[in-house]
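Hi all, long-time lurker, first post. I run a small reading group and we've been trying to get comfortable going from sequence to structure in the token notation. Rather than ask abstract questions, I figured I'd post a concrete chain and ask someone more experienced to write out its structure so we can walk through it together at our next meeting. Sequence below, copied exactly:
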Amino acid sequence: MPDWLTKDFHWKAFSLLMAIGIWLTVHHEGETSGVPAANPIKNTYVNVPVLAVSADSNVHAATIIPQTVTVTISGAGEIMNRLQRNELHAFINLTGFSSAENLSRDVEVELPPGTTVVTVDPPQVTVTIPKPQ
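-- Answer (accepted) --
Happy to help. Here is the structure in token form:
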């Protein structure tokens, strides 16, 4: 056998075993961390206010109909049991609109990590933005 293979063979074998152990640990953690909860819990929140947001205009005068929605979310038990109502935000994005009448927009929901939106009822709202004066 070549000298580079047999010299310090015990250290090389130990290093190889350590590398395999580390790889197996990381590989196992990667498989389990992205797996959804086996029995997710669903919670429904009624009368969640819908807020209007915009990056380029003032939308405080926007009229949203309906003003509230019902949101059903799911997640692991430990997350859902700690979830507070104020961590749930429903909004519509009005970026690019300075005025509109009877504009239909999808309701988006911002949630904490580890939770997902199941349903939003109604999924769309109607918006009227008065023309700037």
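A couple of things your group might point at:
The longest strand covers residues 41-53.
The beta strands are 41-53, 63-65, 68-75, 89-93, 100-106, 108-110, 115-121, 124-129.
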